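Usage

Read records sequentially. Each one opens with the input sequence:
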Amino acid sequence: MDDKAAVLHDADVAFTELRQSIAGLGDEPMSRVMLGTWDTRDILIHISGWHREMIPALDRIARGESEPYPAGTYDDYDTWNARFVAAKVGVKPADVVAELEMSHRDFVAAAAAVPPQYFGGDGAARGLIDGVGPAHYREHATQIRTWRDSIGV
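and closes with the structure output:
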């Protein structure tokens, strides 16, 4: 498997792990605060937000632009996270999960359009995809599983 195929495969495997971490959670438990001030719903919203925000960056990489986004744009990720969550206040958990599914598909499709040379070593696409995709999914899947184990849901 070449670097590009491996990165895309890992994104799908890690996404499955994230989906498994929320499997069977109903609206009430998904809306319980479990990480700082966030509930599971908020975690999923912010993941979708990063998907949507990074799709244009992947498009720029695919076009061969030197920077996927201007330096410093996302340095204050807490503000971005809060913005993503605030934009979805009141959205039902089932709709949040549906958006997560769609945004993941769109993110992976944008990644698949990036030429293979940007996936090797420390290629521009590799780090961006891992940070928004597999590493991010696994970080939050672990937090959700730990929380679920602690409360027995």
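Summary fields computed downstream for this record:
- The domain at 3-151 is CATH 1.20.120.450 (Four Helix Bundle (Hemerythrin (Met), subunit A)).
- The chain has one domain: 3-151.
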